[in-house]
Amino acid sequence: MAAFGVLAMMVLSVCFVVEGKYMVYNTSAGVGKINVHLVPHTHDDVGWLKTVDQYYVGSNNSIQGACVHNVLDSLIPALLADKNRKFIYVEQAFFQRWWRQQSDEMKETVKMLVSSGQLEFINGGMCMHDEAAAHYIDMIDQTTLGHWYIKRDFNVTPRIGWQIDPFGHSSVQAYLLGAEVGFDALYFARIDYQDRAKRSAEKKLEVIWQGSKTRGSSSQIFTGAFYAGNYEPPTGFYYEVNDDSPIVQDDIELFDYNVQERVDAFVAAAYFQANVTRSNHIMWTMGTDFKYQYAHTWFRNMDKLIHYVNQDGRVNALYSSPSIYTDVKHALDESWPPKLDDYFPYADRIDGYWTGYFTSRPTSKGFIRELSGYYLAARQLEFFRGRNKSGPTTDSLADALAIVQHHDAVSGTAKQHVADDYAKRLSIGYEEVRLSPDIMNPSSVKLLASTYFLVKSLPSVSESMQSKDVVATSLGCLTQSPLSSECKSPVTNFNQARTHALSFLSDLIFCCLQKHGCPLLNISYCPATEVDLSAGKKIAVLVYNPLGWKRTSVVRIPVINENLSVSDSTGKLILSQLLPIVNASLSMRKFYASAYTGESPSSVANYWLAFTAVVPPLGFSTYVISSGQSSVSTKFVPNSFDTGGIEVGHGNLKLIYSGKDGKLMKYINGRNSVNVSLEQSYSYYVGSTDELQASGAYIFRPNGTYTIQSEEKVLVFRIVLQLLLTTRVYKEKEHAEVEFTVGPIPIDDGKGKEIVTKLKTMIGNNKAFYTDSNGRDFLERIRDYRTDWDLQVNQPIAGNYYPINLGIYIKDDSTEMSVLVDRSVGGSSIIDGEVEIMLHRRLLQDDGRGVDEALNETVCALDTCTGLTVQGKYYLRFDPLGEGSKWRRSFGQEIYSPFLLAFSEQDDKWTNFPTPTFSAMDPSYSLPDNVAIITLQELQDGAVLLRLAHLYEVGEDKDLSSLATVELKRVFPHRKINKIKEMSLSANQERAEMERKRLSWKVEGSDTGHRSDSRGAPIDPVKLVVELAPVEVRTFILDLDPDIVQYSTR
């Protein structure tokens, strides 16, 4: 306070007098004791309170007065008015909408502004993706798409990461979506309030963040957290037309002249920030959500501030950008504090832990994750067949998936009508949409209008860029001739299966436009397989494997007949099993199938038909289901256990349930001698409704815990709170699959609830547990502890929750327990020996973080409204210490990239496809167990984008945490690779160029700023063998010969 008293006396000696005449303001940069970098920006959410299109065109302003079209229209003439003015822009989802509408003359003007540095694209993705609920492959894909547009239109590569609004920050963002993209720095606003206080006091808000222990110093990136915890200007310096900050009034002939007062306020704010920032350079983020709709008001006032502040002389103000600011910081040649691990969980104040959104809108999260895996497979099939330049392509799904990675989309923190819009876009991206006379009859138009189907708002729809059609056509062609590119109209018409996590949102679009596929396979509804085969018909099942290694898994489909046989492509009868569909599932099937399709199911599927499919890498196998004699087991009889329990499992794995109450008691693996006690339970937290802090879409604040008691002593049982649980054990597998159906969550008592599952063991994990970062690295978490500061515990449950995309595990000196998930969730180990995962949330209060809406999802159908029901799976396994990573990594890839199923009904004379099995790879080759293909895509110019990822960290596995090699000649045995270029992660620049340009930073406690880099060697253009070091992702652009050749693999 004393310092501010001195400042007040100093400013009285300065006086400005400006006559009422035309002024030319000096906005050029100078050099001062404290340099204030003014960074004009707008933060444009790709959907939140309004949909992405409403935000762009400026409609629905009763919710929020925001129009991105106005921002961009207003910005260009404002920049042209003064060459010193600068602006940064982020979200390509909006910019591309605007760019498509501009004249050639305007495009040339914008290119000039970009070339001069006045307009700079930073971050550069389609959106500012979330860092908790997004999978790393989705983060890469959406960033790549945005960077591709920027490279195509402006031939520039973004240098700076700008994740200013996500609610916590992941290590994967730092090293993979930061350093590996080629960014020189990463800036954001939100870190824990306790962390911020300590860093501010020690001037450690700016650090060198090493996000990966495996990648070492090569993963380091300069990182700055904004001092105030937001991305806005200092108080009193907002200049939108309707903002209440005082403008700079410098006309002495008019009332309210305030130049001196504004300069003093500016200097005071600069001194305050300088006190918590290293060096004499500070950044002011001049903008916030959807600002600059009238850009002149901002720039006019900033012009005046720069002019008068620099005349005053105590500090220096200048127009700047994050790139300029970063270069200045780097030029200081100083050492910066190190930062490891991540910035989760995030709390903005006491009791305000943003850990609820890790699970919020679980059906949306499941839908996004499933279509992400589908998109990976669809691009592979599109490449095998050849990209159709006239369409359809996978581009529409790419755009939809990119948008939903936004930090208010996959996070589950948007308003309900916006969540519906996201689901609609995903469905359109997947599904074939044709504006035929049939679709456009009056009754259909009424139905489509009731689900907000606005074709004009979705330009990609009119281009017929639909992934489902790409996949169906590609599969049909590959079954005819896998090496031919001449297939235009395949003989076989495939219907595809999609089990979209029971997304009971506004997905009516999907079901109304496609009645013959299997969009509701997860509720045992699939018209393509519910065919009466007693009259001699057959069902051909194609099973596609998008992974790079041979795969064996169980396929389950609903059927109506009992006496069925399953044959492989050679005609050999294979083992199959009929499993009864429980009554609760049949009731759900009837209700939701009717709701989605508009008609009751014409058949009743009483059974699941299960069989084991064996599928080659990057290929498919086909199976035939027909009526007749088979080796089908129609009834499962559990074995008695000698202690009065019930034993389930015919392979190495046995689960023991209590004969008294049906509860799980033991997990026994005969192969590795694991024999552990295990209790499985379900509970709910009552959401706080405290007026100071309620539990809501963002915030998790529990107010009491209650155990859910089962009502029936059976293995598949119904319990209170509408929870249906099915546990499956497969003969050839050593994990348990738990399928849950939760909901509707009752709220008759006026209390919101958050449902969790708890797994209790005797493992002595001593407060430590491990969760993944966006599906990649596992990070150690310690209950009630933070590495960077002494945690003051005020929320012992919510404050120990972390995001989970792949899994969570605990261990002691002998045993590991791993739990893998099928979507983003929140979880923790609140008590030693226990793991808990939150499955579903329904809350009745808004949590005060801006969405202004309770997280109370409902579905209305057939004159009935009820709470949202969610269906999903988690997977459980125990291993001896040090052996669990093999399952976590390999099976984790299978969860992300499940089999893609397609069906075709055939008559009794049909025997098989011309090509019943297919693998794109050399038949004697598969990828190493520690490598995955995460991108295989033909680009618009005919080049091929290939990404390979090493799945293991250093020290994670004694065998697989090692250098891996991939032989590209055997991955592409029928196409000659004419040229190969290694690229940055987002494929917008060659890697060698990226490495040459990237800044290297000095780190406190380190002898040198040189980056060590344990990487695979440069690829030999003749041998074409790719090396991958642990956790390395390598990206290539391939030029393939169009002619089919046969490589020698020696």
Automatic annotation (TrEMBL):
Q: Among its keywords, does the record have DNA-binding?
A: no
Tell me which UniProt keywords the record has, alphabetically.
Answer: Disulfide bond, Glycoprotein, Glycosidase, Hydrolase, Metal-binding, Signal, Zinc
State whether keyword DNA repair applies. Answer: no
Task: Report the cofactor remark.
Answer: Binds 1 zinc ion per subunit.
Q: What Pfam families does the record tag this protein with?
A: Alpha-mann_mid (PF09261), Glyco_hydro38C2 (PF17677), Glyco_hydro_38C (PF07748), Glyco_hydro_38N (PF01074), Laman-like_dom (PF21260)
Q: Name one GO biological process term.
A: mannose metabolic process
One Gene Ontology term of the molecular function aspect? alpha-mannosidase activity
Q: Which domain of life is it from?
A: Eukaryota
Q: Which SMART domains match?
A: Alpha-mann_mid
Q: Which cofactor does it need?
A: Zn(2+)
Annotated InterPro entries: Gal_mutarotase_sf_dom, GH38_C, Glyco_hydro/deAcase_b/a-brl, Glyco_hydro_38_C, Glyco_hydro_38_cen, Glyco_hydro_38_cen_sf, Glyco_hydro_38_N, Glyco_hydro_38_N_sf
This entry's Enzyme Commission designation comes to 3.2.1.-
Residue stretches making up the Glycoside hydrolase family 38 central domain: 352-426
Signal peptide annotation: 1-20
Q: Which reaction does it catalyse?
A: Hydrolysis of terminal, non-reducing alpha-D-mannose residues in alpha-D-mannosides
Give the family from UniProt: Belongs to the glycosyl hydrolase 38 family.
Protein name, as recorded? Alpha-mannosidase
